[in-house]
Specification:
The protein has 757 residues and is of the alpha+beta class. It is 20% helix and 29% strand. It is globular, with a radius of gyration of 27 Å. InterPro entries: Gal_mutarotase_sf_dom, GH, Glyco_hydro_31_C, Glyco_hydro_31_TIM, Glyco_hydro_b, Sulfoquinovosidase_GH31.
Amino acid sequence: MRAPRLWLWASLAAPCVAVHAPWHLGNGFELTVNERANFLSIAHRGRSIWETLPGQPFLSASAGGDEVIAANGNFKINEVDQNKCTGQEIRDVAVRSWQGSSNDHAALIQGQLTGCGDATHFSVAFWVPSQFPDRIAFSVKVDPGSSSDAATKLFLAYRSSPSEDFYGLGAQGSFASFKNQTVPIFSREQGVGRGDQPTTRLESQDSFFAGGDHFTTYTAIPQYISSKSRVFHLTQESSAYTSFDFTDPNAVTVRYDGLTLDGYFMQAENMLNGISMLTDYTGKMVALPEWVDTGAVLAIQGGQSKVNRIVKQGLKLGCPIGAVWLQDWSGTHSQSVSYMSLNVSRLWWNWESDTTLYPTWKEFVQSLRDLHNVRTLAYINPFLANVSTKPDGYRTNLYEEASKGRYMIQNSTTNSTSVISSGPGLDAGILDLTNTAGRSWFKEVLLDQVWSANISGFMTDFGEYTPIYSDTQFSNRSIDPFFYHNAYPREWAALHQWIGENVSSFSDAILFHRSSSMAANRHMNLYWAGDQNTNWGVNDGIKAAVTVIGHMGLSGYAHGHMEIGGYTTTWDSNGVVNRSSELLGRWGELAAVSSVVFRTHEGNVPEVNAQFYTNSTTYSWFGYNTRLFASLAKYRRRILETESKKLGWPLLRMPVIYHPEDEVAKAISYQSFYLGSDLYVAPVLDPGRTSVKVYFPGKNQTFTHVWSGKKYHAGQTARVSAPYGKPAVFVVGTPNNSDLDDFLQFVSQENNTLIHF
């Protein structure tokens, strides 16, 4: 670190006017400060990696509390900024001792924010962290001020460029790049429709904000990776509501609902390297067991006889089956929906087996394994429902036990459990993960009543409902609900890894999550893209599933999959929009060439949706798609064991990752993607189509269509044949490995197969 050289007036009442020579932060990083222009610049070995906008404040603050309205897990947030500071004065630049710095020091910049009543003090520290010497860590602190209209939130602004595009930020389903958008970071129900009409409007008319919008999501993560290979993320401790404003072509502004903000920024060599740098902090995802590679995970509800019948039928038809997912293992009940004449199938959140559907649960699970080598997956979430009205009874009412022990999040006004509604007749409490006794109690429940049946994992649902009311109370009274809300999904995932330490077969299990948060990936081995609608929609249908997995990959989540066929049955003026056989089949093709796990879902109204087991025709197409998935097992496994495990790279990769200078590739969300580096895929995502328009990105590259052998060239756009059963897949260049042999053999054997439905 350069010896301090400070240009200070005798009184801090007037601003400084000096320009500082570079401050050496360590490992080749240098900070330059121009106090007159309020300008900061950080370079690494002479290359600028981060800078503010000259002549403009890089920090601001505002008063007022954001307005949050919530119902049934739907949170609508209106940002409120009162008395926002309009000016900034740098008063001091100094070297300070700093724990965790590579050279034990940090550069500390202090000053005043002005134009907002009383001047408000701020400080910004920059240092090279000893644990991650390839990046800059920062810490921003703003004093609330002494006026009655005290600051409550801060803004950090820095330079971008018109050609820089932004990706990641969690499970985002509506846009390729977030340039020109403002992205809120808050985990919540994603809504039904999310902008697809008329679904969104009808849902929100029926229930508050139930349709959501383009940015409502189960998983919002405060990070991005840009097309310039710049990486920015907050720490897991900075978990308050945040928004990233990319609407200024020359700047990024991070608005944070708190007065202390910590994070990192870095310049990667390329976007894949950026993912590696991000996951050096967050951690890599936990390894997936190999049994998921070669068979389908069949979602079935209805009890032991139905499950046995469908499994036997599938095996007879030559469908590889890895597991059955029996989400109704704890029992079901019907939930009326005002806008449909049908009832929605919901689950009893009381984590014991249902004696009507599965009277010999443990023995049944073992028999599937012994007779057919088929594993069983269950379902768990952090809710505990009051089952006192369960028609066929129960052995233990976990809600009552947890209420007596105060193991669930409390309401300080009623001095009782904070009750969450998930629709008519489904009221529950949420496990308080700050309650040590409650965690231990829940651990014993799962070990005794869930894991004891020799299952191979479960859907680890929800995590985004944590209330943020003023009377929300945790066992740890120091917890602020507004800050803890975004952290809960990570703690929920970590809880299961802790419980898994007592399960001998845990490394052979899959636990799949839809809700996540910063650094939760280190506690997960699988996520899914959330609850899409059973349609062809852009924002919340089959297309959105691709976009979500693409952005999650750029958020550090390498192991993604989708629910084949979607989940949510919607309606329009013509009635119920059910899942067609064509949609189910095309979604199966998509999952086969995009996902790490091949899993179905019956949907929330199974009886109106085409199912893989509806008839021999649907099962035949599904079996074909499963074999297509299995043919890629060696290729996927090589990627998972090397690039994903060691580097954090995702299986599904948005085209921009390899072509950040290609303007067309930068705008591709769902139309095409890379599967690893050797395959390029352009799925059919519209009904009635037997061909697809494909853009081939980059320069000086060839793409060979696997079904026809025809070669296409980078920069070319072409219409490619894609009849049912033959998704448009291309080999990129001339890969020199044998991992694709099984896939290419499948293509050769099935090239004359005709799919009928």
